[in-house]
Write a structure and sequence with these properties.
33% of the residues lie in helices and 23% in strands. The chain has helices spanning 81-89, 105-127, 139-148, 166-172, 177-182, 185-195, 225-234, 253-267, and strands at 25-32, 35-42, 50-57, 67-72, 93-98, 132-137, 154-160, 211-217, 239-244. The chain has a 9-stranded mixed sheet with strand order 1-2-3-5-4-6-7-8-9, with helices on both faces. The longest helix has 23 residues, at 105-127. The radius of gyration is 18 Å and the shape is globular.
Length: 272
C-alpha cells in the first residue's frame, strides 16, 4: 500500500496559545517506593478535560528531569501505568493518558493529538521536565506520529502497533468491516476525507532529529505487515523497526525491554 503523502498537513492548524491554562487537578493515588502515582486531569486545548495517571519521584528534583508521555487507545490511561512508574523510579516524570473517545472519530483524533501536546505542557510547566519522550499504542501511536512532525520538544518516539493513519484503518481493516457495511457510502467517504488530514503519514517524515522506534506484532489482525512497513518507510531517520510474536496488544516481554532500552538511551534514564 502506497502512503498518501502530501502537503495537506501544512494546512491543518494544530497550534494553540502557549499561555492556555492547564487547570491541573492532582488527587492522591498510590504510593510506591520512591514514587507517587496520582490521579489527575487537565484542560485540553479543545474539548473536555483529559484524565491521566501522573507518576513523579517522591523527592523533588533540583534539575530538569526527563519526561515521558504515554497514550493508549486499547487499554486507555491505565495501560502504561507500570511503565510510567518505572520512569519515575528512574528519576523522571511521566503522564499516562488514553485517547479521546466519543461518537466523532475525526474530532477524537484532533483532540487526542492536542491532548498529547498538553500532557507535555503539564510535565514541563508543572514538573520542570526537560527532554521528552512519547510512547503511543495503536491509535495512540498514530496520533503520536502526527505529533512527531509538529512538536519538536520530543527527543524520541515509540510507535507500538501503529500504521499510517486512522483513515487507512477505517477504510481497510477487518476490524471496521461491519461499520463500513452499515454506513451509507457518502457518509463513510466524507468521514475518511475529514479524517485523512490527521493521518500520521503526513507528519512522521518531519520527525527528525527525534529518534523513532516502531514496535509491531506479527499476529496483529488489524495492522498488516505491509501497513506497518509503509508507516515505517514514511518516517524520517534515525529509526528502527522491531517485530514480536504477539497480537495487537503486544505482550512479548521483549517489547518492554526494547522500549526501556530505547527510552533510557535517548532520555538519559536507567530503566529496566
Amino acid at each position: 500500500m502506497e502512503p498518501r503523502i502530501g502537503t495537506i498537513a501544512a494546512v491543518i492548524d494544530l497550534e494553540y496559545s502557549a499561555d492556555l491554562p492547564l487547570n491541573l487537578i492532582v488527587e492522591p493515588g498510590l504510593d510506591r517506593p520512591g514514587v507517587v502515582l496520582a490521579d489527575c486531569r487537565f484542560d485540553n486545548a479543545e474539548g473536555g478535560p483529559i484524565p491521566g495517571w501522573l507518576a513523579v519521584p517522591s523527592e523533588p528534583r533540583t534539575d530538569a528531569p526527563a519526561g515521558v508521555v504515554f497514550i493508549n487507545s486499547t487499554g486507555d490511561r491505565e495501560a502504561f501505568v507500570a511503565e510510567a512508574i518505572a520512569v519515575a523510579s528512574a528519576g523522571g516524570v511521566a503522564l499516562s493518558i488514553g485517547t479521546v473517545k466519543s461518537m466523532d472519530p475525526v474530532g477524537d483524533g484532533r483532540q487526542s493529538i492536542l491532548a498529547i501536546r498538553r500532557a507535555a505542557d503539564v510535565l514541563q510547566r508543572e514538573y520542570g521536565a526537560g527532554v521528552l519522550g512519547l510512547v503511543g499504542h495503536s491509535a495512540g501511536a498514530m496520533y503520536a506520529g502526527a505529533v512527531s512532525g509538529i512538536d519538536h520538544r520530543f527527543a524520541c518516539f515509540v510507535f507500538e502497533s501503529g500504521m499510517s493513519g486512522l483513515s487507512y484503518h477505517y477504510r481497510d481493516s477487518p476490524v471496521y468491516e461491519q461499520l463500513r457495511a452499515a454506513t451509507p457510502p457518502e457518509l463513510f467517504a466524507a468521514t475518511i476525507e475529514a479524517m485523512s488530514p490527521y493521518d500520521a503519514v503526513h507528519f512522521v517524515g518531519a520527525a527528525a532529529p527525534a529518534a523513532l522506534l516502531f514496535q509491531s506484532a506479527r499476529l496483529d489482525i488489524g495492522v498488516t505487515a505491509a501497513e506497518t512497513e509503509a508507516f515505517f518507510a514514511a518516517a524520517s531517520e534515525p529509526k528502527e523497526l522491531r517485530w514480536y510474536d504477539s497480537g495487537h496488544v503486544i505482550l512479548d516481554p521483549a517489547v518492554f525491554a526494547d522500549r526501556a532500552r530505547f527510552l533510557g538511551e535517548h532520555l538519559g534514564l536507567k530503566l529496566g
